[in-house]
Specification:
Number of strands: 5
Radius of gyration: 22 Å
Shape: flat
Strand order of the largest sheet: 1-2-3
Mean pLDDT: 75
Low-confidence stretches: 144-153, 263-292
Order of helices and strands: HEEEHHHHHEEHHHH
Distance between the termini: 23 Å
Number of domains: 2
Structural class: mainly alpha
Number of helices: 10
């Protein structure tokens, strides 16, 4: 498919050469998505375990169970396919991160491991209605976590267990219930209702003036120690690691759990419609991300 894409589009609209595939990470992360493995993504050749059989694999000496070696085989295949005609970007081994991101922004890579927003962010400057961007194609061997941004699937990076010998089974289950409670996840993400956010007269959840001011300062990196969200905790990171729900899922009220963060570039990735304001153009409530 990548070869056909290159044959159809050897250059960008601005005349830059296109390449089959781009990456800035050769640790094996991009070939990590095997549904049966529990992995340490960042040191890919360490020991790994099969979560169904509990087998232990040496990720360096066992090529058949190693995302690191799978990554090397993938790039060897890309090199063989594109070295002769220049469609394999040989500079990926030596270029800086800035050079890599610039190529992403120009749309020079026909394939990437995961969706990056640079292409959309540059394209929207020229055309506010652009749909330019990278789209996700899920991989067959991966877990599909449709409640996270990366719909291509992911490895089991965060796993929760209850010990078979626990004396506190009911308490453990109550904790899991809390982690899957949309009200709790929203409070963790956006703070206390009536303080940093609340429902308006029409039942639409909105940030309060105080909450928006505090959030803007927090996200800008210039918040004072007494900033509400500094004291509240790392609201924008906790939901990705701790709860069983994700902040881009819908709350039972019909709006995003995290309705306070705008995600326009998701539209360009081809997975979600734009996060609109008070009312969606087709009549649905604003603030709801809908799959397309």
């Amino acid at each position: 498919m990548l070869l056909q894409m290159h044959a159809n589009h050897p250059f960008t609209e601005d005349g830059y050469p296109t390449y089959l595939y781009g990456t800035s990470n050769f640790s094996g992360y991009e070939t990590a998505f095997r549904s049966e493995l529990s992995l340490d993504y960042w040191v890919a050749y360490k020991y790994q375990n099969n979560i169904f059989t509990n087998e232990i694999y040496d990720g360096y000496t066992d090529p058949g169970h190693s995302m690191w070696w799978a990554n090397k085989a993938w790039h060897n295949k890309l090199f063989r396919a594109g070295a002769a005609d220049g469609s394999y970007d040989i500079d990926i081994f030596t270029q800086t991160s800035e050079q890599y991101y610039a190529k992403c922004a120009r749309g020079q890579y026909l394939g990437l491991h995961s969706v990056r927003s640079e292409l959309y962010k540059e394209s929207v400057k020229k055309d506010p209605e652009t749909l330019a961007g990278y789209a996700t194609v899920p991989t067959a061997a991966a877990n599909y976590y449709t409640n996270v941004y990366q719909l291509l699937g992911n490895g089991s990076g965060y796993m929760w267990f209850i010990s078979a010998n626990t004396q506190h089974m009911e308490a453990a289950l109550r904790l899991f219930n809390c982690m899957a409670d949309p009200d709790i996840v929203r409070v963790m993400t956006l703070g206390e209702q009536g303080v940093s956010w609340d429902y308006d007269a029409d039942g639409v959840p909105r940030m309060t003036g105080y909450g928006q001011e505090q959030m803007d300062a927090y996200k800008a990196g210039n918040a004072a120690p007494d900033n509400y969200f500094v004291k509240w905790g790392s609201f924008d990171k906790m939901p990705t690691n701790w709860p069983l729900l994700r902040d881009n899922m819908r709350h039972p009220d019909g709006y995003l759990i995290d309705f306070g963060n705008d995600l326009p570039f998701r539209h360009a990735a081809g997975r979600y419609e734009y996060q609109y304001g008070p009312e969606h153009p087709d009549g649905r409530p604003g603030g709801v991300l809908c799959e397309i």
